[in-house]
Amino acid sequence: MLKIYLIWLKKKTDENDVKVIINEQFNERKITTEEQVALTVDKILTEKEYMTETEVKNNTKEIHLKIVKWTIGTGLSVAAIILALLRVILL
Question: Given 10, 17, 21, 83, which residue has the most CB atoms within 10 angstroms?
Fold first, then answer.
């Protein structure tokens, strides 16, 4: 069947007819062109929300700062509890 199409395409002189026939063949066989891939990728990227590199860095810095604050606060609390227990036991 493909050979028949090729022979028929060689007989055609109008480029637009050839382009239409090729496009019909692509659509029938579900062949994906580069344009279709680019459109699909663009569509997916616009639908989803992604963070930029600077947003990720800023978010990481904020989380790191919170962890440092919590660590210092927890350390001070533990030291205060230990000192309070020592005062109660020794006095």
Answer: 21
40 and 55 in a single domain? The answer is: no
Looking at per-residue pLDDT, the higher value among 63 and 19 belongs to: 63
Cα angle at 53 between 55 and 59, to 5 degrees? Answer: 30
Q: Are residues 60 and 34 part of one domain?
A: no
**Cα radius of gyration (the chain):** 35
Same structural domain, 32 and 60: no
Q: How far apart are CA 3 and CA 9, in angstroms?
A: 10
pTM for the model: 0.45
Alpha-carbon distance of 89 to 58, in angstroms, equals 47
E-strand ranges in the chain read none
Residues 18 and 61 in one domain: no
Instruction: Report whether pLDDT(66) > 70.
Output: yes
- Of 19, 22, 30, 27, nearest in space to 5 by CA: 22
